[in-house]
Amino acid sequence: MSTWANLGLQDSASPLMEQLIFFHDHALLILVMITFLVGYLMFMLFFNSYINRFLLHGQLIEMIWTILPAIILLFIALPSLRLLYLLDEINEPSVTLKSIGHQWYWSYEYSDFNNIEFDSYMIPTNELSNDGFRLLDVDNRVVLPMNSQIRILVTAADVIHSWTIPALGVKVDGTPGRLNQTNFFINRPGLFYGQCSEICGANHSFMPIVIESVPVNYFIKWITNNMNS
Ligand code: CUA
User: Fold this and answer.
1) How far apart are CA 26 and CA 13, in angstroms?
2) Which of 23, 74, 98, 115 is the most buried (most CB within 10 A)?
3) So where does this one cross the membrane (predicted)?
4) pLDDT in tens, 142-160
5) Smallest Cα–Cα separation from 19: which of 86, 115, 101, 88?
6) What is the residue with the minimal CA distance to atom 1 of ligand 1?
7) Do 70 and 144 form a contact (C-beta atoms < 8 A)?
8) Residue 229 has what pLDDT?
9) Structural domain includes residue 1
């Protein structure tokens, strides 16, 4: 999760988020180079004293500074499209999770396993344990197996919500009457925190998401325990 004084992206916990971070760094580098070049040129304009009474046109330089930005944009657009289509791909998921946004909590359904379903509410500050995270911890976590392809179906029951987990690179709107899908692959165990990111009403800030990534055999134990109860 994001901690104090961390202004950048969180460490990735999935291959897609890793690629998103690479793309972010790539685009940022190009942006910094352009900003410095243009900034330097504009700054230096104040100090030059060149005058050329007969300068009317410069076809070559105009050609260069028209085509060059187009080529630079291509170097951003093509990797961006590659990532877009990679994010959209569903790679034979082994588990499907359905999450439904409500005002103001999430509920989950494991439709592959006897349709286990439960609600997931934020733990209020006054009920928080000493090792809990304020405004982020929930009473019922989403338990998911690591190292497996997971499909997530997102919808909502009342207004638009958004199921967002920064470390996994997942952000899907839950819209009433629609079913959106995406997928991810968690490559390490741990707790991954997320929040609703669609302004959905007074308690929008208080419907966090917690994913508990566990080894597959532990997940099977968890799911069988819940199917029996
Ligand atoms: Cu749900 Cu914002």
Assistant:
1) 20
2) 98
3) 27-51, 63-87
4) 999 999 999 999 999 999 9
5) 86
6) 161
7) no
8) 66
9) no
